[in-house]
Design brief:
- This protein is mainly α.
- It has one domain.
- The protein has three helices and no strands.
- It is flat, with a radius of gyration of 15 Å.
Length: 64
């Protein structure tokens, strides 16, 4: 399998676009969400991060 840097850069660009949608549309909602996340313990945040990574890997496998 060869690494295609343009695909990686396109994926990173898409992540930036998607992550910019919420603060652009509703910054107050983002602030509330970040305040809530700041109060979660480390274990909960790690589990959420792991679930997000697994879902992303599964989705990538299905799409590719």
């Amino acid at each position: 399998m060869t690494v295609v840097w343009t695909d990686l850069l396109a994926a990173l660009a898409l992540v930036l676009v998607i992550e910019g949608i919420i603060p652009f549309i509703n910054p107050q909602s983002l602030r509330r969400m970040l305040e809530t996340a700041a109060q979660l313990d480390d274990r909960t945040l790690r589990i959420a991060g792991l679930a997000s990574m697994m879902l992303g890997a599964i989705l990538l496998t299905v799409v590719r």
